[in-house]
Write a structure and sequence with these properties.
With about 210 residues, this protein is mainly alpha-helical. The protein is rod-shaped. The N terminus is likely disordered. It has four helices and no strands. Helix 1 packs parallel to helix 3 and helix 2 packs antiparallel against helix 3. It starts with a helix and ends in a 14-residue tail after the last helix.
Length: about 210
Amino acid sequence: MKKAFIFCLVAAVGGTLFAQPEMQAERSRIAAERNRAQAGFALEDSACYKRFWVNDCLDEVKARRLEVFADLRRQEVALNDQERKSKGAEQLQKIEEKSTLANQQAQADARAEAINKAQSKSDRDAQKAQGLSPLGGEKAAQAQANKSSAASRLVANQAKATGRTQKQALDAEEARKFDAKQRRAKERQEKYTTSQSGKPKSPPLPTPPGR
C-alpha cells in the first residue's frame, strides 16, 4: 500500500516522465502483485469454506480483494496516463527538433543567399571601378574583335593591291620587251630589203628545148 501511495503521488504530480524500460518494469510489477493477490485470495476463499460462518468470511475476503485490485487498477491507470504524457512529450520533442532543423536549414539557405548576393554586388562594384560593366565588357570585346577583323581585311586588301601592281608591272615589262622585239625584227627586215634592192637582177633562165 505504501508503494501504491508513492506511485500515485508521483503520477498525480506528473513531474517525472518514466522511460520506456521503467514503464515496462512497473507494468510487470503490477501484474505480479495481481497474480500473487489472486492466488492468496483463492486460498482464503478455500479456508472460508472450512469455517462455520462461511458467508461472512467470504464477504470479508471479497472486500479486501476489491480494495487490493482497485489499488492495482489505479496504479495501472496512473501508469497509462504517465505513458501517454511521455509519448506526447516525445512527439512534441520530435516536432520541435524537426522545426529546429527546418529553421536551421532556412537560416543556412538565407545566409548562403546573402553571401551570393554580396559576392555578386562586389563583382559588379569591381567592374564599375574598372570602368566596365558586364555589358560594357562584352561590347569592348566585340569592338576589339571587329578592330582585329578590320585590320586583317586591310592587310589582305593591301596584299591584293601589291599583287595587282606587281602583275601590272610584269605585264608592262613583257609588253615593252615584245615591242622591242618587234622593232628589231622590222629593222632587220628593212635592212634586208635595202640590201637586196642595190644588187643586179639575175638573167632569166634559158628556155628548155622543144618549146
